[in-house]
Each structure stands twice: as structure tokens, then as C-alpha cells.
Design brief:
The chain is an alpha+beta fold and 280 residues long. It has three domains: 16-90, no CATH class; 96-202, Band 7 domain (Tetrahydropterin Synthase, Chain A), CATH 3.30.479.30; 208-266. It is built from seven helices and nine strands. The strands form three sheets. Strands 6, 7, 8 and 9 form a four-stranded antiparallel sheet that branches. Strand 7 and strand 8 (112-123) form a beta hairpin. Helix 1 packs antiparallel against helix 2 (35-52), helix 4 (136-154) packs across helix 5 and helix 6 runs antiparallel to helix 7 (251-266). It is rod-shaped. The N and C termini lie far apart (93 Å).
Length: 280
């Protein structure tokens, strides 16, 4: 680990009330010998007591610094006391939610797309968050934008084959987004609890053309599916006639039957039955 990085040292709880009772006892004992000395000692100790006293709220941590030196992090909630003349920096441990702005970036195929994400994060190392980066809130925003751009450029928006894409593999993309963010934000003591794509679309300049392309691909795929299954049905019918010796068809009749079946199965419109009066 680099020397510039600082990790948390958890401080033990020093209860406020025992310290207050000890101070009162010491004050009474000093005053019993000399009132003026007792008052002076009481005033000085009260001032020092005040400098070390603090209240830590739930879901907060205090980074304690003594004359420029980090001495530890206090996590417990409630009243506490520490060394006088220390600086006590508050770091929130609450969950934060980011809904990033829509950004335009080229996908793996070079198509411009719009993408944004929802990210849930919290500080799990107050010392890292305070000392390792100048502003951890801004650091999260900047790294989130950078990771989203990098991730979007690694995958195509959509794919016709089994290739992974942003649209088809949303769960995998979300997991990868979270992992990439966690790797970059570890130095700032940030924990990513959730990261997922909230908006994904082609950029406006190509959206109409890509929509037509998707529609054409869908129509072609549907046609291919219909034709493939129609051929299977025709083969089953012809196999049935081969096995059933009571019905004999010549080659011309077979061709006509196949033609009629394919037209019936593939046609977009309901077929109308016709009766041929030709006996030849």
C-alpha cells in the first residue's frame, strides 16, 4: 500500500459521564483545601473538558486529528470526550443516491448512444474519504461519469448474434459497472452497494434510422421462423402420405400440395379455399 494512503484506526469509546464525575470529585477535593485554587483549577479543567467534548450522531463518524496528525476515527454514537485541542471532522456514513446525467458516447460499434445510471454508495472508511481525496463527493461523481463512458464503449448497444450487448445483458452490465466503480473508489473509502443502467437509447440523430433497422430485423426474423416451421409441417405431411399407402400422389400432385401448404402457412392473409373442376 502506498505511504500516502491512510486507513482507519478505530478509537475506543471514552464515556462522558465517568469523566464528568471524576472532574466534579477533583474539583470538590481541590476546593476543600483552597477555594481560589479550586475555582482556578475548575475553570481550567472545564475549559479543557469543553475542548475535548463532542456529540456523535447515529450514522456519523468523527475523524480525530491532533495538531496535524491523524490519531483515529470514532464511530460510536452519543456523548464522548477525547484529547483537548483536537480537530473533529464529521463524515456521514449514510447511503447516498446518484442519478447521473444522460451522457452521449459511442458504443463498441461506433454508434452514438445516450446512457445514464443510478448508483447507491456510502462511506465505509472515513479516514480514507477525508485524507486520500480532496472532496469525496465530487470524486464519486467524476469517477462514475468516467466508468459509465468506458463501459458503454466496450459493448455494442445491441447485437444480432449471441454477442453480449448493453441492451440484452443488463444484469451482467450492472454487475460490471459496480465492480469497476468499486475498484476506482476503494482509495476514497467508498462502498458501492448498487449500480445499474437507468437510461439507454440511441442518440437522437440516429434513433429513427436504428428503429427502422430493428423493425426490419424483427420482421426478417419472424419470417424466417415462419418459413422454417412451415417447411417442417410440409415434410411431416409428405412423410404421412408416404407411409399411408391408401393415398397415392404423383409428382405433379405432390408439387401442387406442397405449393398450397406453403401458401396457406406463410401467407399474411387468410386463405380462401377453391375447388378445382379440372379432372385432368
Amino acid at each position: 500500500m502506498e505511504k500516502s494512503e491512510i486507513n482507519d484506526r478505530s478509537l475506543r469509546r471514552v464515556n462522558f459521564w465517568p469523566m464528568l464525575i471524576l472532574w466534579l470529585i477533583a474539583l470538590i477535593v481541590a476546593a476543600s483545601y483552597n477555594v481560589e485554587v479550586g475555582i482556578a483549577i475548575g475553570a481550567a479543567s472545564a475549559f479543557l473538558f469543553y475542548l475535548g467534548f463532542f456529540i456523535n450522531n447515529p450514522n456519523e463518524a468523527r475523524v480525530i486529528e491532533f495538531f496535524g496528525h491523524y490519531i483515529g476515527t470514532y464511530f460510536q454514537s452519543g456523548m464522548a470526550i477525547t484529547i483537548p485541542f483536537t480537530m473533529k471532522y464529521i463524515v456521514s456514513l449514510k447511503f447516498h443516491n446518484i442519478n447521473t446525467e444522460k451522457i452521449k458516447v459511442n458504443d463498441a460499434n461506433g454508434n452514438p448512444i445516450e446512457i445514464s445510471a443510478v448508483i447507491v454508495w456510502r462511506v465505509n472508511s472515513p479516514a480514507k474519504a477525508y485524507y486520500n481525496v480532496s472532496n469525496y463527493h465530487e470524486f464519486v461523481f467524476v469517477q462514475s461519469d468516467s466508468v459509465i463512458r468506458e463501459l458503454a464503449s466496450n459493448y455494442p448497444y445491441d447485437s444480432e448474434s449471441d454477442e453480449e450487448s448493453l441492451r440484452k445483458n443488463s444484469d451482467k452490465i450492472s454487475d460490471e459497472l459496480r465492480s469497476m466503480l468499486q475498484y476506482r473508489l476503494d482509495i476514497a473509502g467508498i462502498e458501492i452497494t448498487e449500480a445499474r443502467i437507468s437510461h439507454l437509447a440511441y442518440a437522437s440523430e440516429i434513433a429513427q434510422a436504428m428503429l427502422k433497422r430493428q423493425q426490419a430485423h424483427a420482421i426478417t426474423s419472424a419470417r424466417r421462423y415462419i418459413v422454417q416451421n412451415a417447411i417442417v409441417i410440409v415434410e411431416e405431411v409428405m412423410d404421412h402420405f408416404k407411409k399411408n399407402k391408401s393415398i397415392q400422389l404423383d409428382e405433379k400432385q405432390k408439387a401442387q400440395l406442397i405449393n398450397n401448404l406453403l401458401i396457406t402457412l406463410i401467407s399474411d392473409h387468410d386463405t380462401q379455399p377453391t375447388i378445382s373442376l379440372d379432372n385432368n
